[in-house]
């Protein structure tokens, strides 16, 4: 028996990388899982979750299209009567040599997926949380949103905005009993960061980040999953004059 038995979580970008790690750890903790993603990889993770003895479905969703978001959320509620946890993990990273080589298209894409996309999914889900008198939102930001990154200006800015969005939602939703937190991963070996390694053309790309960590190893998608499961139980302290929320950086 897990500590999330009977709960249902909705995860964007749960078909690969960090999202897959979160989905599997949530399932191991007892939750049923909805994976919202554009690619067919979500169906593979759904099968993995069912092998763990939990229920799961995949819904097609484009977080840059609010109509697609609303359709995905509505489809999910046809299958599960209640959703207690929202995890916003869908994201993109644009790596460029510098601002002089940066494209407005890359900036717009990071904004559309990493920031506005999260805003849209929260907007679609919050009415259901209010109806259920509570809920949990965990946004997957990035350590880059707290300290910036060379060549990743568009990505860093979008994640910094996501951190602020998290803080703002924690304030505005506190009296609806909706708990909002953010996890800020460091560099994790995923398909997305493998592409970054190729773009930077550095064979020691991952080793450099590993040597910067206290444990001398890169975090794993499961590490982020553990943090998200932890946040399912965190109670942020909220009063009329005192609003606080947690942001955890996993570097």
CATH class category label: Alpha Beta
Number of domains: 1
Distance between the termini: 31 Å
As a whole number of angstroms, the C-alpha radius of gyration is 17 Å
- Beta fraction: 5-15%
Q: How much helix, percentage-wise, in residues?
A: 40-55%
| CATH level 3 topology | Rossmann fold
* CATH homologous superfamily identity: NAD(P)-binding Rossmann-like Domain
Main sheet, how many strands, which sense, barrel?
Answer: 7 strands, parallel
Total of DSSP H or I helical runs spanning 4+ residues: 9
Supply the helix-strand structural class. Answer: alpha/beta
Mean pLDDT: 84
Q: Could you tell me the number of beta strands?
A: 7
Residue stretches low in confidence (pLDDT < 50, at least 5 long) are 236-244
Question: Mind telling me which CATH architecture this is?
Answer: 3-Layer(aba) Sandwich
Order of helices and strands: EHEHEHEHEHHEHHHE
Q: Which word captures the global form?
A: globular
Instruction: Give the neighbour order of strands across the main sheet.
Output: 3-2-1-4-5-6-7
Description of the structure:
The protein is an alpha/beta fold and 251 residues long. The protein has a single domain (8-186, 221-250), classed as 3-Layer(aba) Sandwich (Rossmann fold). Helix content is 47%, strand content 14%. α1 packs parallel to α2, α1 (17-28) crosses α9 and α3 runs parallel beside α4 (104-131). Residues 236-244 have low confidence and may be disordered.
